[in-house]
Specification:
Blueprint lengths: L1 E3 L5 E7 L7 E2 L2 E2 L1 H17 L4 E5 L10 H17 L3 E4 L6 H4 L3 H5 L3 E4 L9 E5 L2 E8 L4 H8 L6 H17 L6 E7 L1 E2 L18 E2 L9 E5 L5 E4 L2 E3 L16 E8 L4 E7 L6 E6 L1 H6 L10 E6 L8 H8 L3 E6 L12 H5 L4 H13 L5 H24 L1
Parallel strand pairs: 1-8, 2-5, 5-6, 6-7, 9-10, 10-13, 11-12, 13-15, 18-19, 19-20
Antiparallel strand pairs: 2-16, 3-4, 8-9, 14-15, 16-17
């Protein structure tokens, strides 16, 4: 398959991934922000005269996405097709490859190329500019245990199956005209990449990370999976997710890569910022400091993760924090206390203590202060009720 694309001198590629359509941020529905990103993507492709869009997996957040997410994806496909910009997409570890790939043959005719079948790794989408062909190879997420037979590898590991897929890429490339440039889309954890808390673990099937050298021999590798935009090397890059999905991404700059691929495979890369629905902030301290520190005023409109360091858990902390930071989404408690003696085992600390004392100790550990008289009475009544039930069950036998 060959399509014409490209301006004089370069072929311009817009690299994105990890849309996670349908995913929420804590309890915040992100569908409107995801729709805004899709609009931004289409506008960027039009205004920057992009010749190809590549989407490197995790289009959806789960295998069976909600209807609203499917409708947004359908809208994205129609808008990209209407622009006449060829688009290559692969499935990621969050996607159902079979569901995402439904109708791929028909959609191809509109210039939207879904690559979800591992067997097609060596069959590229071929675009052309004034300097010749550019072959785009889509390597969907390869779960080692599921694809080892397809690739004839003995050990089901990520490096083994990706290596076998790349052998097919290189074999196909070797049969193409001299000077054919190449782009590989892959969804993987490449050694040297910086992870966040919001990526799903892919260590099942062996060690998750694969060396960047597995992709040697191609001009550009458009990676998906890690949510931070980063360059493993000049030719191997993650676009990152366009939106944040955990507070561990608070320092991320959410972007897409705009790449110019030259006649000899040279790369010029530019980061295109994505719309920010609301900044993220991680704040830490005792509650009085968080409520009064003037330096924290800049976070009052942010989505906030607050960690309280009060030795004793304060009353109603979430409501109090929300008075100043109305978009507080996460509250943690990490009290500043002297550490307990590590040489005293849990069993030793419990020795000789009755249920009531153990429960009171637990309250003290969690809250930082022991129960008051009313709370001790509640605990005592609860234990008495349990003991009464035990006696009644024994009598009924």
């Amino acid at each position: 398959m060959s399509e014409h694309a490209g301006r004089s001198g370069v072929l311009r590629i817009l690299h994105t991934s990890d849309w996670h359509l349908g995913r929420a941020f804590h309890r915040v529905n992100m569908l409107d922000a995801q729709a805004e990103f899709i609009g931004h993507l289409v506008a960027t492709a039009r205004e920057r005269e992009v010749d190809a869009v590549v989407v490197s997996g995790d289009v959806y957040d789960r295998a069976v996405p909600p209807l609203a997410a499917v409708e947004l994806f359908d809208d994205a496909l129609h808008r990209l097709a209407d622009l006449g910009v060829p688009t290559v997409m692969i499935s990621g570890n969050h996607d159902s490859a079979r569901r995402l790939g439904v109708g791929a043959g028909l959609i191809d005719r509109a210039g939207i190329h879904l690559r979800t079948d591992p067997a097609g790794c060596g069959q590229p989408v071929v675009l052309a500019d004034t300097h010749g062909d550019v072959a785009f190879y889509g390597l969907p997420y390869l779960e080692p245990a599921l694809v080892k037979d397809e690739f004839g590898v003995r050990r089901a590991g990520h490096e083994a199956v990706l290596g076998a897929a790349m052998e097919r890429v290189r074999a196909d490339l070797a049969d193409r005209p001299t000077g054919t440039r190449s782009v590989v889309l892959a969804h993987a954890f490449v050694t040297g990449g910086e992870a966040s808390d919001s990526e799903r673990d892919i260590t099942i099937g062996g060690v998750a990370a694969v060396p960047a050298g597995v992709f040697d021999g191609v001009d550009y590798v458009a990676l998906g999976h890690l949510h931070g935009s980063q360059a493993i090397s000049e030719r191997v890059r993650y676009s990152g997710s366009p939106l944040p999905y955990s507070f561990s991404e608070s320092a991320h700059r959410k972007t897409m890569w705009l790449l110019d691929l030259g006649a000899a495979g040279e790369i010029e890369a530019e980061r295109i910022d994505c719309p920010v629905p609301r900044p993220l902030a991680r704040i830490r301290g005792d509650i009085e400091t968080l409520l009064t520190d003037p330096d924290l005023a800049r976070h009052e409109d942010a989505w906030v993760e607050a960690t309280l360091t009060d030795p004793v858990r304060p009353d109603d902390p979430m409501a109090r924090l929300c008075e100043r930071f109305p978009h507080t989404l996460s509250l943690a408690f990490d009290p500043d206390r002297a550490p307990e003696d590590p040489d005293v085992s849990y069993a030793q600390r419990l020795k000789g203590r009755d249920d009531q004392q153990i429960a009171e100790d637990f309250v003290t550990h969690v809250r930082g202060a022991g129960p008051d008289a009313r709370e001790r009475d509640v605990l005592r009544d609860a234990f008495d009720a349990v003991r009464t039930d035990d006696v009644l069950r024994e009598v009924a036998r």
